[in-house]
Amino acid sequence: MRKPNTLRRKEISHRFVLISLLSFLGFALILAGCSNAPGAGNSNDEPEPIIEETFLLGTLVTVRAHEWDSDLDIESAIEQSLKVMEDAGNVVSVYHPESDISAVNSGGGQPITVSPEIFELLEIALEVSELTEGSLDPTIGPVVEAWGFYADDRRIPDDDEIERALELVGHDRIEINKADSTVTISDGMKLDLEALAKGYAGRLAVEFLADQGVTSALISAGQSSIEALGDGPGGRAWRVGLLDPRQRDKVYAVVELYAGEALSTSGDTQRYFEVDGQRFSHILDPRTGWPAQTMQTITIVTSDSVVADALSTGLFVLEPTDALDRVEEMPDVEAILVTSDGEIMSTSGMDSRVTIQE
């Protein structure tokens, strides 16, 4: 049995630089880079960052740029990066009628040609499905629909509804043909890659900004998917405060994020409903058809934002010790989580980059 993480605890007594308004907070706060404090303002010799926020991908998206080429119109570059993210969200969306995902879902069991980008995302989702023994399943759509999360008409379906929905779920039933970039699913099945959407959009935005000459920036989608371009202010690590899943005005841990890394958090704190005091999250276990109940939140840190998104969603439905054991076997992937009863646990590699807060 894995023991609780024994990382050092430190009281937060320094002022935070908050990117998002409290009404839009997701899972994390971006703290100013600082080597000796959980959060502090820029030093006198560091220019103030350019910060742009807008509502995209169903959440508040923030681009925070710190360093860029002197001849770059940074405001224009940030605006264009936000458009890149918006377009990426439409490409992946299960709701957009003209997306490749919608085409596959309405394909009637026929092979549907998809873009190389969607094909790559599906390959990543299927790889993570194998790594997690099906706890991430890109065909979870019928179950999501049964619980009313697509139509925002959330309810507890009866057992027969769940059983019928589960008959249409199975990542091993997806047929992909790399030679002609086609995807085939049985009639009635529903492909859903929404779990990867924010990470994918963030990846493209970082690539765009880097091409434009930005050398230090942070992209945040709802504070649940965060990607670092270059080092933080002053060449230091970026510092990300993870919000307590049950006390949303409190940070339970501060994670250091290094250049080229991404962080993804999944939890039961944003899209959920309650019945008789029991919380039902939108993250559903494809093995049972019921919302995950073993954790309050899990955060993944790795080098690829899409992989981070996929892993945080898939691992969230597992038992905490099982999830961490699986991450321990993955190279260059770390995790920290809060169990359903509030216990903080993490992988061994997190010790050097995390400070637990009191």
Give a written overview of the molecule.
α1 runs antiparallel to α6, α3 packs across α7 (305-316) and α6 (197-212) packs antiparallel against α7 (305-316). The chain has 8 helices and 18 strands. The protein is globular, with a radius of gyration of 20 Å. It has a domain at 9-73 and 214-357: ApbE-like domains (T-fold, Roll), CATH 3.10.520.10. It has 358 residues and is α+β, with helices and mostly antiparallel strands. The strands form 4 sheets. An 8-stranded antiparallel beta sheet has the order 3-4-8-9-12-15-16-17. The protein has helices spanning 74-92, 100-105, 116-131, 141-146, 159-166, 197-212, 305-316, 320-328, and strands at 9-10, 28-31, 50-56, 59-68, 112-113, 175-177, 182-184, 214-221, 225-229, 238-243, 251-257, 262-267, 272-275, 278-281, 295-302, 334-339, 344-346, 354-357.
Describe the structure using short key phrases:
358 residues; alpha+beta; T-fold; eight-stranded antiparallel β-sheet; 18 strands; 26% helix; 26% strand; disordered N terminus
